[in-house]
Each structure stands twice: as C-alpha cells, then as structure tokens.
Design goal:
- By secondary structure, the protein is mainly β.
- It has 2 domains: about 120 residues, no CATH class; about 260 residues, no CATH class.
- It is built from 6 helices and 25 strands.
- The chain has a 16-stranded antiparallel barrel. It has a 5-stranded antiparallel β-sheet with strand order 4-3-2-1-5. A two-stranded antiparallel sheet has the order 13-14.
- It starts with 7 loop residues before the first helix and ends with a strand.
Length: about 525
C-alpha cells in the first residue's frame, strides 16, 4: 500500500521470488496460519516455530495449486516477531494483488496435493532460480506477488459464482505534537491530526479505480478536505498499465512511495520534499508505467503527460496537480528505475514544461498600456535516487534540481508586473534506519528502530522563498513498532535557516512526537 499500495501492479513487478527449505531446524506446529484465495487458487502463509538451535522461526509459503514445493522465504535465529512481521507483509502484498486473506489452514485436499508433488518430484525440492541462501538467512529476500497469470501453464480462472468486482478500504492516520526552540523562545502545539482514507474498486482484471482523500484540521481549527489523488489504472499488458486522472507524480521516490506517515521513517518530510518544495507531488493527466526484466535486472519505467506546474503568487513554482492548464504547453515527466537485485534500486527522474506569469495579483494601473505583461518561462527538473532495503537496513538517498527561467509576473506586494530572475531550486537528503529486531529477541527492544537523516534545501533567485524555506537539517529519531503498520516515534531536529535576514532566528531545535497507523 504503500503508496506501496498506490500502484498495485507495478509493485508486483518490483519483488523477486525465492525458495528453499531451512536447514538445521525442525518445523513445529504453525503458530500463525493464513490462507489467501483468488480465482481458483489458494496460497498459505505459515509462521513455524522450530526446535533447531540456530533458527527459532520460519515463514513458509505454500502454492499447492501449481504443484510447487513449499518454500521457506524468511527465517530468524532470535526473533519470532520478525517472522510474524514478514508474514503479515506478505499477506498485505497478496491482498493488494487481489487475494482475500483470512486466518485458517489449507483444506485437506490442498494439503494432500502439496504433499504428493513434494514427494513425487524431487526436482521441486530444489531452491528456486536466483535463490541466495544468505538472503534467506537474513530474512531479506522478498516474494514476487502473484499476478494474473501463474508461472505454470494454467491461466487462473474465477470461481463460479465469484464476483467480478472487489472493494477495499485502506489508508492511514496520524497525530503529531511539536515543540520548537528558536532564538530562546519555545513554542508547543499539536501540529497535525490527519485521516487519509484510500478507496479501491477493481473490475475483473481490467481496471482499478483508486482515490485518496485527506481530512485534517488547519491552524484556525477548521476542517480541511483535500483530494490527494483519484485515478483509473487500466491493465493493458503485464508490462504496461495506463493511468488516467490525478495521480502522484512519478518524479523521485519520496512523494509516491514514502510520504504516508506510517511508511515515512520520520515525522515529517525532508527539506524541499514536502508541499511547496522542489519535488512534484501530483499531476493531472495520463501516465504509462510498468516494468520489464532484462536478464536478472528489473527495469521499471513511468512516463506522464499533464497540465504541469504553475507559478505561485510570490513567484515560485507550484509542482502540484492543477485542474486547469494556464497555457497550451503540457509538462512531460517520468522516471526510470533499475533493480539489479531485489533489495537495491537506483533511479533517475525528469520534468520539463512551461509556466505562465500570474496576472490576478496586479494592482490597477493608471497607464492603460502597461509596459510589461505576464510572460511564460521554461521549467526543467532532473533528479536521482537510490534505496537499499535488506533485512534490518533501510538506506535511502535522493537528489532533485529544478530551474525556472526568468519570467514577467505579478505577485503579492508587487506594483503591477515585474521581472523575476532565473529561479534555481536544489534539494537532497540521505537517511539510514536500522531495526533492532536483527540483533535482539527482547520483546520490547526488538521493536525499536533508530533513524538518522540529513537534508538540505537551497533557493537562489527568489529571496522571499529562500528566507522561508531554505535550510539545512539533521534529524535523529526512534521508531517503536507496536505492529507492522502501527508506529510511535520521537524525533529531534536541528535546523539552520540559511537565508534568514538579520534579526530573525537562524536556527531552531525541534522536538516531535507522532503516532501513525496504516490500515
């Protein structure tokens, strides 16, 4: 869901299947067992405790309908909670792909079918192609979620009497408390309270409709209702999905995949990556996206055409979906990603388009023929990102660079139309998170996850925006995972505002407490 749930078919392509049977451990009765069903197939996810000295638990995945041997996807030598979390994550991925998961065990018929295949075909007991024993031992390998076609010869068919439509409600919610010390003055407030429901409707294997809304409280105590995105995903081919409507921008990784509060490892966005930053948040238009395997490397792509950015009243650039295009130009944006191994991804992004100067802030002019009129300017953006997510590690870095050419525009506080120089925006961050579940089996300590992030946002060519937003920031936080999608966190951030005028505080220490829940 994730934002990992945002684009279900693409997520199916981003994961790699592994198999194998754990060595040196004897499975016992399953502590947790879920059955996931779709069409005419069933899958079982089981957490097994073992009697081995080196392995305390394993996650077993069963696909008896395809005549496949049981697979051990993850194992842990010190934490049953680790196996529980991985099993739940796998169930969530299957749910996102159209399966219905519930607690229970496979039917006796399915049990016998799996046993016969396992006993009758020795070659099925060998690890799947590309299986790395070290991956399984660290619990880092991911499973390729089922798509509409199996790896074997049979095509999945819907069960008789089954519905052609599916509904699903997902989303997240959070509440945040913030205390800041700037220039010797301390302020405290409960800064955010949000509820973001995500509605999904799927018709057969043809189209998925999805929309997310954000319900929050503003600084004046008023309730705000905003549409984050609303799109139709048309499944044209296994390697191509056509997206129509308002969708999250494919530029970079943070907005599309990480910004939900229960997925983001920090209590806020990196400098320049939130609203009013340099990273595009959403687009209104059409997008083609998908992925293809080239040898052992997975290549993903996204190419979008939309209304593009607009000029803010103060002269900046708004990288957010607009319901109307104020010029005849359409913006083109996209991203190309490479996964040489399942746990490492690198990507590059771009955006090009035009913006038109703002005219509705112009003061009445005594001159019936003013010397200047609003003009248009080119906006270009490029970026790079990388992510390493293996075992307890979550390491990410992202860089974006945007330029708006000189433009004639009216803005708040100006007297008519003025010419603004070239605007250059640059933002980047690097972040490292490490889960203690890899080094301790203590029921409390294993749920902690320390995080460190450093980021910068630079603005050149617009003093008002630089004074407000340009900064260098280091954040240190700790996440406590009450469940795989429920987290309580504390964050301390040290901020240096690099363009504040003399007399205003140029640094701030901020403390944040947040509770976030994904569902």
């Amino acid at each position: 869901m994730d934002r990992l749930r945002r684009f279900l078919r693409l997520r199916c392509l981003l994961l790699t299947s592994v198999g194998g049977i754990a060595a040196g451990a004897t499975p016992a009765v399953a502590e947790v067992s879920q059955v996931c069903s779709a069409w005419n197939v069933s899958r079982a996810i089981e957490v097994l405790t073992t009697s081995g000295e080196t392995v305390v638990c394993q996650v077993r995945y069963r696909k008896p309908d395809e005549g496949a041997a049981d697979q051990i996807l993850w194992r842990s030598s010190n934490s049953v909670a680790f196996c529980d979390q991985k099993a739940q994550e796998l169930a969530s991925r299957l749910t996102a792909a159209g399966f219905e998961c519930r607690e229970g065990k496979l039917t006796e018929t399915a049990q016998r079918s799996s046993d016969l295949v396992s006993l009758g075909r020795a070659d099925d007991e060998t690890p799947a192609e590309g299986f790395d024993q070290r991956d399984a031992e660290s619990g880092a390998s991911a499973l390729q979620v089922e798509s509409s076609r199996p790896s074997g010869r049979r095509v999945y068919q819907r069960l008789s009497g089954g519905s052609d439509t599916k509904w699903h409600l997902a989303g997240y919610a959070d509440a945040t408390f913030e205390a800041a010390d700037a220039g010797g003055e301390t302020t405290t407030s409960f800064s955010t309270a949000r509820f973001n429901p995500l509605f999904l409707f799927q018709y057969k294997d043809i189209v998925l409709l999805e929309a997310e809304a954000e319900i929050s409280v503003d600084d004046d105590g008023e309730t705000e209702f905003e549409l984050e995105y609303a799109q139709a995903d048309l499944f044209v081919h296994d390697n191509l999905t056509l997206v129509l409507g308002q969708f999250l921008s494919p530029v970079g990784q943070f907005q599309e995949r990480l910004h939900p509060s229960w997925i983001n490892r920090m209590a806020d966005a990196p400098p320049g990556f939130g609203h009013d930053g340099v990273q595009p948040t959403s687009e209104l238009g059409v997008m083609a996206r998908g992925g293809v395997s080239i040898g052992r490397t997975l290549v993903t792509y996204a190419l979008a055409v939309g209304n593009g950015p607009t000029v803010a009243h103060e002269g900046g650039v708004v990288f957010e979906a607009s319901g109307a295009d104020d010029n005849s130009n359409k913006a083109i944006s996209g991203r190309l990603g490479f996964l040489p191994v399942p746990y490492l991804e690198v990507g590059g992004s771009f955006l090009v388009g035009d913006v038109s100067g703002v005219a509705d802030e112009m003061e009445p002019s005594p001159d019936p023929m003013p010397a200047l009129a609003p003009s248009s300017a080119n906006v270009s953006l490029w970026g790079a990102d990388a992510a390493y997510t293996r075992g307890p590690w979550d390491v990410r870095a992202e860089y974006l660079n945007a330029t708006r050419d000189a433009i004639a525009t009216a803005f708040a506080g100006s007297n008519g139309v003025e010419i603004l120089p070239d605007l250059k925006l640059e933002a980047w961050y690097a972040q490292v998170a490490y889960s203690l579940s890899d080094i301790t089996s203590h029921p409390v300590l294993q749920k902690f996850e320390p995080v460190v992030r450093y980021g910068e946002y630079k603005v050149n060519g617009l003093d008002e925006l630089a004074e407000e937003a340009a900064e260098k920031r280091i954040d240190v936080g700790v996440n406590y995972w009450l469940a795989p999608s429920i987290v309580a966190r504390g964050v301390v951030g040290w901020r240096d505002f690099t363009a504040r005028p003399a007399g205003e505080p140029s640094s701030e220490t901020r403390y944040m407490l947040q509770f976030a829940y994904g569902f």
